[in-house]
Structures are given as C-alpha cells and as structure tokens.
Amino acid sequence: MVRNRVWKWVGFGLGGIAVLAVSALAVFYFASQAIIARHYESPASNLRAANDLAAAARGRHFATVFGCADCHRHNLQGGFIPDFGISSRNLTRLAAKFSDRDFDRAVRYGLRPEGTSVSEYMPSDSFQYVADSDMDDIVAYLRSLKPAGEDIAFPTYGFQARIALLKGDAHMDRFWFSWQKPAMDLGPRYARGRQLAMAACGECHMTALTGAPALVPPPRPPDLSLVASYQRADFIRLMRTGKAAGNRELPLMSAAARARFSHFTDPEIGALYDYLTARGRKLTGASR
Fold first, then answer.
1. pTM for this structure?
2. CA angle 115, 119, 124 (to 5 degrees)
3. What is the secondary structure of 244-272 as a DSSP string?
4. Is residue 45 part of a domain?
5. Within the chain, what is the greatest distance between any pair of CA atoms?
6. Residue 226's closest CA among 253, 190, 256, 188?
7. For a surface tag, which of 74, 91, 183, 237 has the fewest beta carbons within 10 Å of its beta carbon?
8. How far is CA 49 from the centre of its chain?
C-alpha cells in the first residue's frame, strides 16, 4: 500500500516535470518563432527589369562585384555554405516564383514576399543602397538564366539557431537595417563612388564606411577614411590583386578583392578611389 502510494507520487512528480519541460520548449519555440516570423511593412517598388542582353550583361557584372556569386555560387544555383551552416537559394529556380518586385524587396529591403525578414546572412542592409538602375540590371540577369539545379527552400532554424536568436548572438537581417546609415554625401561629383562604396563595402565596413561595430570580433574592418593615405596606383593594385601596399595580405579584404572587386571596371575603381579619398580628407582635415 505504502509502496503504491510512493510510486503514485513519483508518477505525479515525473508528470509535473514533463509538463514543465514541454511548457518550456513551447515558450522557447514560440519566442524564437516570433522573431523569425515577424512581419514588416513591404515598401513600394517600381522595379521592372529590362529584357535585353546588354542589361543582363551589366547585371552579371553587378552580381559579381556585390558578392551574389559568393553565396549563391557562380551559376546562382545556390548551395550549402559551411561557414554559415545554411544553404543559399537557387536564384534560377526562384526566378519562376518571384516577381521583379519580389526580388527587389528581398535584395534591397531584406523581405520575403509575405513580409518576413530574410536570414542574417543575406546582406540586404547594405544592398539597400544599390542603385535603381543596377538593381534593374541584376534582375534582368536573373531572368536571363535558364532554371537549373535543385530548388532550395528558405533556410530552417534548428535548436541551436533558435537559441542564438533568443540570446542575441544571431539576428534576422532586418535587425541590421537600424545599424546602417548612409555614407557622407560629398555632392554629385562623388555620387557614383559613394553609391558603389555603400553597396559593395557596407557589408563589412558598414554603409557609413565607419568600420565594423565593436560587437564584431577582431580583426575588425576599419573606417575607410584610411584610403586617403593610399596612392591611386596602390589602391588599384589592392582592388585588382588583393595585395595592399608592401605586398601585404589583408584579412577578408584580399580575398574579397580577388573574388569581387577585381571585376570592377576602371571607371568604377576610379570613382571609388575619388570618393573614399575625398571622404578621408574631409574627416581628417587633410589637404591634397
């Protein structure tokens, strides 16, 4: 009789623990899901991609220099990214599902068609400064590709990823929009260089070009005012080969230069140099 009573209370205790565990898991899931599934107002978009070979060729160029091919692969068919632990979307398949405006909102506003945020690894917070004409060309390029490869779904969030979201160690991409500010405006003469710098360099150096925030572990990308100390020939060499003055390899930058920035045209590199040096002189008070 006593033994039965003991086992009865043991059963009650275990049942209570199970209820608490299930409740905790439910709270954990719904709290993390609230972050993942948060809806944002979708901005208006008038993007309408051209349907010609010249636009597609320009779009391929911008897809390279802005880094689309880094994550979505050279053929834009997506694939697993070991550093991030997720797979990027197959953009050739997505083109059959997304309208031009869907692509615009995903790339420049960090939003999926239903209004939830794309993952943190999509740097829409810096791509928000991609020029309208450049975005038109990128979508024209996507439209020119034949669907191929596996259709890859939107990334899912497992236990560890959800813990990281709740702890603030990871975020959805929309989180970073509030951190990104426009770079210093130096007028029409430097407008193209400023635009390219924000879109191409903002992922690492922030779109204000002030360098990575303190929460980024060292070595942190620096404020790009340092470009004012570069001779034009040295800057061109860095962009073309990844080699800094003194034949140095720079963390992240050297690899990014060889993969992306070496594809900039000479006028684009010139515009970047002119803007970044002018900005550096303005900030430091230096003269030519």
1. 0.88
2. 75
3. ETTTEE-TTHHHHHHHTGGGS-HHHHHHH
4. no
5. 96
6. 253
7. 74
8. 22
Exposed e or buried b per residue across 59-75, where buried means at least 16 C-beta atoms within 10 angstroms of its C-beta: bbbbbbbbbbbbbbbee
**Contact residues for 191 (Cβ-Cβ < 8 A; gap 6+):** none
Instruction: Encode pLDDT of 183-221 as tens digits.
Output: 999 999 999 999 999 999 999 999 999 998 887 888 889
Same domain flag for 65 and 101? yes
Do 241 and 260 touch, CB atoms closer than 8 A?
no
Query: Residue 67 pLDDT more than 90?
Result: yes
Q: Give the dihedral of Cα atoms 270, 271, 276, 282; nearest 10 deg.
A: 110
Of 123, 256, 107, residue with least CA distance to 202: 123
**Pair (203, 269) in one structural domain:** yes
Q: How many domains does the chain have?
A: 2
Query: Is 49:139 a contact under the CB 8 Å cutoff?
Result: yes
Domain assignment present for residue 47? The answer is no
Take residue 205 and report the two structure tokens written for it: 């150096």
What are 210-266's pLDDT values in tens digits? 998 887 888 889 999 999 999 999 999 999 999 998 899 998 899 999 999 999 999
Q: What is the per-residue DSSP string for 151-217?
A: -PPPPP--HHHHHHHHHTSS-BTHHHHTT--PPPP--GGGHHHHHHHHHHHHHHH-TTSS---TTSP
Same domain assignment for residues 161 and 186: no
